[in-house]
């Protein structure tokens, strides 16, 4: 690198990420968000809300399909 060790490390992490597991990707996203000053709890809360929102939408979709079939 050009003597900027942070850049070097970031590049290595990015390379790993391409073939990395979901967990690696999640960890990296968490790190990135943490760097933005987000608290871990807030992130988890947002994740849960998004998941729940998705479930609600899925359920509504199922209901609609069932009603359409009847």
TrEMBL record:
Q: Where is the composition biased (Polar residues)?
A: 20-29
Which residues lie within the region annotated Disordered? 1-33
Question: Where along the chain is composition biased (Basic and acidic residues)?
Answer: 1-12
Query: What name does the UniProt record give this protein?
Result: 8478_t:CDS:1
Species in which this protein is naturally found: Cetraspora pellucida
Give the source lineage, highest ranks first: Eukaryota, Fungi, Fungi incertae sedis, Mucoromycota, Glomeromycotina
């Amino acid at each position: 690198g050009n003597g900027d060790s942070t850049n070097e490390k970031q590049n290595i992490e990015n390379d790993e990420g391409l073939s990395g597991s979901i967990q690696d990707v999640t960890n990296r996203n968490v790190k990135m968000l943490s760097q933005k000053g987000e608290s871990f709890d807030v992130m988890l809360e947002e994740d849960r809300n998004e998941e729940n929102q998705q479930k609600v939408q899925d359920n509504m979709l199922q209901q609609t399909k069932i009603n359409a079939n009847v």
